[in-house]
Automatic annotation (TrEMBL):
InterPro entries: Rossmann-like_a/b/a_fold (IPR014729), Universal_stress_UspA (IPR006015), UspA (IPR006016)
SUPFAM superfamilies xref list: Adenine nucleotide alpha hydrolases-like
Descriptive protein name: UspA domain-containing protein
Domain UspA, chain residue ranges per copy: 2-141
Coiled coil: none
Lineage: Bacteria, Pseudomonadati, Pseudomonadota, Betaproteobacteria, Nitrosomonadales
Entry similarity comment: Belongs to the universal stress protein A family.
CDD domains tied to this protein: USP-like (cd00293)
Domain of life: Bacteria
Length: 141
């Protein structure tokens, strides 16, 4: 079974990783775990006039790896193999697209991420993923 766990770097998003690690027997044989962090695109408008693309790409990579590291630590401690990826764009669209491209059997995500004003302004990523994903989505508290 191929499981995608999207992570936004919040403590809440780690609940999905903890759930998969502690309930691995529910997924049959050792699952193929894919960790995904999606960075919001910051290089819009005139930003590229002042910052070169390599610097922007380095920023995305660094921020993505920071968000993924706690999940990687949990899976390393549980001796579960995984792959990780950092993508750039709108989180809900990128999650659904990556799940489709990778042939994911299930998305496991926390029902609440960074939230706050961002959720109010942009809507819930979880709600959008539920509508866009072509595979089952398991929400973890």
């Amino acid at each position: 079974m191929k499981i995608l766990i999207p992570l936004d770097g919040s403590a809440g998003s780690l609940h999905a990783v903890d759930y998969v690690a502690s309930h691995r027997q529910l997924f049959g044989e050792t699952p193929v775990i894919l960790l995904l962090n999606v960075q919001w695109k910051v290089a819009t408008g005139n930003v590229k006039l002042f910052i070169n693309q390599d610097t922007i790409n380095d920023y995305y990579r660094e921020q993505g790896m920071l968000a993924l590291q706690p999940a990687r630590d949990v899976l390393d401690a549980a001796a579960l193999p995984y792959q990780y990826h950092v993508s750039v764009g709108t989180p809900s669209d990128a999650i659904a697209q990556y799940a489709c491209e990778q042939g994911v059997d299930q998305i496991v995500m926390c029902r609440q991420g960074q939230g706050g004003l961002q959720t109010f302004l942009l809507g819930s990523v979880v709600t959008k993923v539920l509508h866009l994903a072509e595979c089952p989505v398991l929400l973890v508290k």
